[in-house]
Amino acid sequence: MTAVRGLRGVIERLLEIVCVLLMVGLAVVVMLAVVYRYTGASLVWYDEIAAIMLVWLTYYGAALAALRRAHLGFPGIVNGMAPAWRVPILILAETIVIGFFLVLAWYGWEVVVILGGDRLTSLPWVPVWLTQSVIPVGSLLIALAEALTIPERWREAQAGVVTQEHEESAA
Predict the structure, then answer these.
(1) For every one of its 171 residues, what pLDDT tens digit does the chain have, with 9 covering 90 and above?
(2) Whose CA, among 23, 63, 79, 156, lies 20 to 30 Å from 38?
């Protein structure tokens, strides 16, 4: 269990750093664009880059939220079930979620391959595959985050107390 917790901690820290860098970078790009627009000039690339950064922030932020178990959920439904049903429902739910993100990663990779030779409109030196790589990478990170939280959720389901981390931190 300590290896899972250690890996979870490392991935959580890396995702925190990536998300903070993306937020700061996005703020800088948008403020720079505002300053340029105010002075009468305009940056042709800021809109495309800001949109890409927002998508990256969404995927990596979703992976961080999954790792922290901060996505919306209904723990009361599982808590209200008979003890014999809690673990099987957990297995079913995790199988569906992880399966969905693995399928999304697969098809995200297919998109990356198809767009392999394309370039951004405003910055022709940036390949589209790089910007779209967030789909398979982010999806795999979300699936991994879900898998890393299974041992904790398993213990909770067996004990009959299924919680979500953001509820605990709010108390």
Answers:
(1) 688 889 999 999 999 999 999 999 999 999 999 999 999 998 999 999 999 999 999 999 999 999 998 887 777 777 788 888 888 988 999 999 999 999 999 999 999 999 988 999 899 999 999 999 999 999 999 999 999 999 888 888 887 665 655 444 444
(2) 23
CA dihedral 123, 124, 127, 132 (to 10 degrees): 50
- In the chain, the number of structural domains is 1
Alpha helices in 2-161 (DSSP H): 2-38, 46-67, 75-79, 83-114, 128-132, 134-159
| Angle formed by the axes of helices 46-67 and 2-38, nearest 10° | 160
Secondary structure class of 8 (helix, strand, coil): helix
